[in-house]
């Protein structure tokens, strides 16, 4: 018999694919949780020490699109 048409092997392949998908979802959620925790801590530090913030700079710098980039006309 062909390996992929064997019902016993097909069940193991389907179980392995399902396991890989669930592990990927779990890893992604863990990554998001760590990022959210870091942002919460940064926000708490910022609220606890408002005197250290001179010009209300954002926690993360904004991305500058190529259209907004300043160019010098020298």
TrEMBL record:
Keywords: Membrane, Transmembrane, Transmembrane helix. It comes from the Bacteria. Residues 47-58 have a biased composition (Low complexity). InterPro entries: Put_ccm. Residues 60-74 have a biased composition (Basic and acidic residues). The chain crosses the membrane at residues 12-30. Residues 45-74 are annotated as: Disordered. NCBIfam families: CcmD_alt_fam (TIGR04391). This is CcmD family protein. It comes from Herpetosiphon aurantiacus (strain ATCC 23779 / DSM 785 / 114-95).
């Amino acid at each position: 018999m062909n390996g992929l048409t064997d019902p016993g092997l097909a069940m193991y392949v389907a179980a392995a694919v399902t396991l890989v998908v669930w592990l990927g979802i779990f890893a992604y959620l863990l990554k998001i949780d760590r990022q959210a925790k870091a942002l919460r801590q940064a926000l708490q530090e910022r609220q606890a020490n408002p005197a250290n913030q001179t010009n209300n700079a954002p926690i993360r710098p904004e991305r500058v699109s190529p259209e907004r980039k300043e160019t010098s006309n020298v």
